[in-house]
Amino acid sequence: MINQTNIIKRLYPTTKVWLVIAITLCSVFFSGYLFQYGVFVIGLILAILGQVTGKYLSLFFKSIFLVALFIFIIQTLFVYHDHIILSWGIIHVSNTGLQMSYTMTSKIVAIGAILIWFFQVTEVKDIAAAMQNAGWNKKLTFVILSTMQLIPQMSALTATIADAQKSRGVETEGNLLTRIKSFVPMLGPVVLTSIEQNEERVLTLESRAFSSKVRPTLMLPIKKTGMDKILSWVIIIAFLISFYLGVFK
């Protein structure tokens, strides 16, 4: 349910979606890379306001930062470009390579940072309620929400099975080779348990009249406030002005 004590978490989900869409489109179409890298700082400020700073930084540096760093290194050092600055064996550093690396990684950083912030300050059940309020087809809503929850559910399931395997004497910690060996025995239980959970989920949905054409009653009613409407229009207008100045000027 929407947090009533925090100004960011209290916002209606679609208000935050407008902000995510605006920043994503600006990151894709704006030239250069300063704005795109700056989105990380914007996300950090919003994360501080939303009281999720630790989670925001942890997820960013464990995922987006590593991907961007890997792409930057490969694109800069190992992909051949014109205007070579430094060359040593298979390593080539050029102005073109640096510019392309900045452009590619900045967009990844911008989009990844704002998405991480959004999912840290917006609960899945609030997203579901907003979709139902908007009149979305409940089957489509279920598919989207299931996709959002897939990775956390699989991570939790894998951790549970790893603990069970460890209690049976299977080595799950150590060097890379040991981890690879322990991963293979877990594949079977993970797949079979996932299939079993899908069957249980289907039975649960049918027991709750999921196939019924009657509009369901929301257990977590959420409503847009006047602040949400004002902020939505401010974001849209600011985006249109920024997009025009950044792309057509």
UniProtKB/TrEMBL annotation:
Its main location: membrane. It is a multi-pass membrane protein. One of its GO terms (cellular component) is plasma membrane. It is found in: Membrane. The keyword Heme does not apply. CDD domains: EcfT. The keyword Transmembrane applies. The chain crosses the membrane at residues 17-47, 59-80, 100-119, 140-162, 230-248. It comes from the Bacteria. Keywords: Cell membrane, Membrane, Transmembrane, Transmembrane helix. Signal peptide: none annotated. This is Energy-coupling factor transporter transmembrane protein. It comes from Secundilactobacillus silagincola. The lineage of its organism: Bacteria, Bacillati, Bacillota, Bacilli, Lactobacillales. The gene is ecfT_1.
